[in-house]
Amino acid sequence: MPLPRLIPCLDVAHGRVVKGVSFVQLRDVGDPVELATFYSQGGADELVFLDISATPEAQGTMTDVIKRVADVVEIPFTVGGGVRSVDDASRIIESGADRVSLNTAALADPLLITAIASRYGSQAVVVAIDAGDGVVHTHGGRVATTTPTVPWAIEACERGAGEILLTSIRHDGQRTGYDLRLTTAVRDAVSVPVIASGGAGSAQHVAEALRVTDAALVASIVHENPAGLAGLRREIEALGIMLRPLKEGYE
Amino acid sequence: MNVVVVDYGAGNTRSVRAALSHLGHESVVTSGATEIRDAEFVVLPGVGSASSAMTHLNETGAASALRQRFGDDGATLGICLGMQLALTHSEEDGGVDGLGLMSGEVVRLREGRVPRLGWSIVEPWGEAYYFAHSYAAQSEFSVASVDGVTVAVRQGSFLGVQFHPEKSGPAGLAFLEQCLSRA
After folding, report:
1. Which residues of chain A have a CB within 8 Å of the CB of B134?
2. Chain B window 14-33: which residues touch A at a Cβ cutoff of 8 Å?
3. Yes or no, beta carbons of B48 and A71 under 8 Å apart
4. Which pLDDT does position A58 carry in this prediction?
5. pLDDT averaged over every residue in chain B
6. Phi/psi of residue A12, each to 5°?
7. How does DSSP classify residue A61?
8. pLDDT value at position A60?
9. Residues of B catalogued as catalytic
10. Which residue in B105, B107, B106, B136 sits closest to B120, CA to CA?
C-alpha cells in the first residue's frame, strides 16, 4: 500500500489564492505558485487547486497558474473547478497538472469521466463528491440533488474515475473532525483510493481520517499557518501514522 | 548535455522538462529518429495509454530509433508507461506489443486499491518516490520493487522506473541527477 497522503487544497479565483491563508514568511500570500512551493517544501504529498472563479475568462489565467506551478513544484497536483469537457481536461493536463477533478459536470454527464479516462488513464481523473444528508450536492455544495452518495461513487468508478475526493458539506469548515462514517462507507464501496475532505481541525483529526482511508485533504488548518505544515506532519506521525519520509532539502 | 524527451503525441512532458531544467539540462521534445539516436540522454516519459503510445512511436519511426539506440548502448530512462513500453508485451488496451528491449510482461495490478496513487519506499534503494499506475511490469530484469511488485528494470543502458522522479520532490531530482551523471 502507498503511504498515507496529506494534501493541502488551495482555492484559486482569477489567479489568486483566496480564503483564509495567513501571512507567514511569504512575500505574497495570494500567489498560488509561491504558496504551492512553500507547501511542497513543507512536506505536502500532493496539492489540489480548485478554481472557484471558473468563468471562461478565468480559464486562461488558471492555465497560466498551472504552467507556472508545474515549472517549479516537483510534487503531483490536481486541478478542479469548471472542468466541463475533454478539452478542458486536456488544457489542464497538458499544462502540467497530473489529474483533473470533476464535480458538477460529471454528474450531469457521466460519460465525460469515461472520455477523459480513456485519453489520459483513470489515474488522471478524480471525481469530487460534495455530500450532505446522504445525497450529492453540486454547484459548490449549494444545490442538493436526489442522487445518493454511495451509489454515485460506485458509478463514477465504473465510468473510469481513478480516485474519489469526498467532502462532507456538514463537516466542511467546522474543524471538528472528518466524517469518518461517510468516508468509511465510500471507501468500502469502491476499489479506488478515497480522499477524505472537510472538517480537519487538528493532527488528531487527520490521523483518524488516515486510519480509515488513503489520503486527507487539509485547508484552513494549514492556511492559517503555512509554516506549520512540517509540524503538523510530525504530530500526525507521533500519533502512529507513517507518512512519507522526507529527504534532505525539506524545511 | 544533449537531452531528448520522446514525444508520443499525447499528454504532459512539461514536468519532466522542468525537472531536467532544474538540474541544468535543457531538453528537446521530439519523436524524430535522428535526434533520438544521437542524443546523449533520452527520456521516454509516462503519458497516455500503451496502444496510442506504441502506435505513435511506430508511425514516427521513434520505435526503431529507440531499439537502435538500445543496441548502441545509449543511455535511456523510461518513466512509468515509458518503462512498461520497453518490455515485450502489455495486457493494457486488450494487448499491445512493446518495444521489446528486454523480455517482460505488463499486467494489471490486482492487489490493493487501483490505480495505485501515492508515495512508496522503493526497495532496495530505501527512498520514497511517487507512483500513479494501474499496470505493472513482470520481468527477469527487475532491479527494484515495492511490496513485491517490480518498479524498476534495467538491461544494458536502459533503466526503466515505474515511479515519477519528476514528481518525487528532492528524492526524485537526486535520482534524475544520478541517471544523468552516468550518461
Report:
1. 121-123, 162
2. 14-15, 18-19, 21-22
3. no
4. 76
5. 95
6. -120, 135
7. H
8. 82
9. 80, 164, 166
10. B136
In the predicted model, residues of chain A with pLDDT beneath 70 are: 20-28, 54, 56, 248-251
Identify whether A11 is a catalytic site residue: yes
| Contact check, Cβ <8 Å, A123/B134 | yes
Length of chain B: 183
Per-residue pLDDT band at B25 (split at 50, 70, 90): very high
E strand map for chain B: 3-6, 27-30, 41-44, 76-79, 89-90, 96-97, 105-108, 116-122, 127-133, 135-138, 142-146, 149-155, 158-161
Beta pairing partners, A55: none
| Residue B129 grid cell | 518516490
Nearest to B118 among A2, A67, A120 (CB): A2
Strands in chain A per DSSP E: 5-13, 16-18, 47-51, 77-80, 99-102, 125-132, 135-138, 143-148, 163-168, 194-197, 215-218
Q: What nine digits make up the cell of A77?
A: 497536483
The answer to whether A74 contacts chain B (CB < 8 Å) is yes
Is 0.90 exceeded by the ipTM?
yes
